[in-house]
Amino acid sequence: MPTLAAILPAERNNFGLIRLLAASSVVISHAYIIVRGDGAVEPLEALTGISLGQHAVNVFFFTSGLLVAASLARSRSIGDFALARFLRICPGLMVCLAVCAFVVGPLATTLAPARYLTDGAVYLWLLVTGSLLHITMALPGVFEHAPYPDVVDLPLWTLKYEIACYVLLGLAGVTGLVRRGARFWAIYAGLVVVYAATLVFPELTFGIVAVQHMLHLAVLFGLGVAAYRLREGLPLSWFWLAVCLAIYAAAYSGPLRPLATALLTGYATLILAALPLGALAHPFRCIDLSYGIYIYGWPTQQLIIDKLPGSSIAEVAIIALAIAGCLAFLSWTFVEKPMLAFRHKPLPSVRRLAAAIGRTAGTGAMAHLGKPGASGSS
Hints:
This protein is mainly alpha-helical and 378 residues long.
């Protein structure tokens, strides 16, 4: 019965493949609403209450909590950790937004190319969408008549919650909350209780969707952090997976099903990560296409349905996965991987800034997480 610690080294796990499958699942799930419009029932939605894409997002946030906790443990300072998080998310995102604005936009807009490119709304879209505060702003004349109109890149909605989780984890590291085991577990238990209370009494969130999303995704991210803390003694066995499944079955008809889903998703992800898949998983330990497929999948699908109206769900999904996969490979090769390497040899000014932030916040504050065993693109 291996423990989580035994599979954390990159060459011993399948996290890269799992994240690739999760990103692909988001594309497949979104093909339904891309073709049929908002309100279309996506895969697994009728059976589990959430779509295949939402299950995939759950997997992303759990694995992110686990791998980013390992990244925090590896970091020399909080400045180094912050730089790593910035380089993982922002460069790839900025290039994707530029592709959407200056490649997808001109191909899909109903305006003349010159008029489109000189429209100030294009550059405002870059600013507003890049801030991640409002990701449903439309580009001028782009996807106006699509079944799911106007929205250029819907999956970006999760990124602000991902970044919020990074910030919270960084603060926990700086203040010593992660180091003090009892406090960490008390705070995480409190978060779970609050989330459970909002599931039983939805009026507690006052109908604010952002609060609902933040609680749900923070619980999943925190579950990944908790798994990393328990890595030395966390067994990975089919017995405990069956226990998680039984808990899910017991909660299936009640308001706490999302909480049981989070537990089952997290543990099932660890079991899948431990399977001896050999050569099948090996390429994705070196190449991470998940982020690229996730952020390029939606605009690719929107462009397909714009240029090939009447395409079936399967056609949109298959073509989009092929194109988004190519774009993801280019993004990883020429943007994401080089920028991640830049973390280890930044410009002197950036290095000095990171060191200054680290001294201010407490250099070495992350050492309490223990000797890291995980590696990878996170």
